[in-house]
Design goal:
Distance between the termini: 20 Å
Low-confidence stretches: none
Number of strands: 3
Structural class: alpha/beta
Strand order of the largest sheet: 1-2-3
Length: 118
């Protein structure tokens, strides 16, 4: 059985230290983190060191093989983050992890977690 947790980055920013405690009680191999709604933390999240640090922490806890990005479309558009602005900003936050990790977080992990055939 797979469990997908959708957690707004706002919660991660405030509760990142509690995630470690939670995951000690879960079989993390069956748990995925859907990262979305980042623009609610800061309208300029792509420039925020706090958001960047929290995102890196979440990825370090779950691993790039169990994190996935969500666009929160169409709500993000209303908040000034259409996909042509959002996806490059998200890519900028994780491109240092390498092509395989980026591909996983933008597509492969969601396909695996939601059991979507290619």
């Amino acid at each position: 059985m797979m469990l997908v947790i959708q957690m707004a980055m706002l919660i991660c920013l405030r509760m990142c230290h509690q995630i470690d405690v939670l995951l000690l009680r879960l079989d993390v191999q069956n748990v995925y983190m859907k990262i979305s709604m980042i623009c609610y933390t800061d309208a300029k999240f792509d420039e925020s060191e706090v958001v960047h640090s929290a995102l890196q922490r979440v990825i370090s806890i779950f691993g790039s093989d169990r994190c996935m990005f969500g666009s929160n479309y169409p709500v993000d558009v209303k908040d000034g983050w259409p996909s042509n602005k959002l996806f490059p900003a998200l890519l900028n936050l994780v491109k240092h992890l390498g092509d395989d990790a980026v591909r996983a977080m933008f597509s492969a992990n969601a396909r695996r977690a939601y059991r979507v055939d290619k």
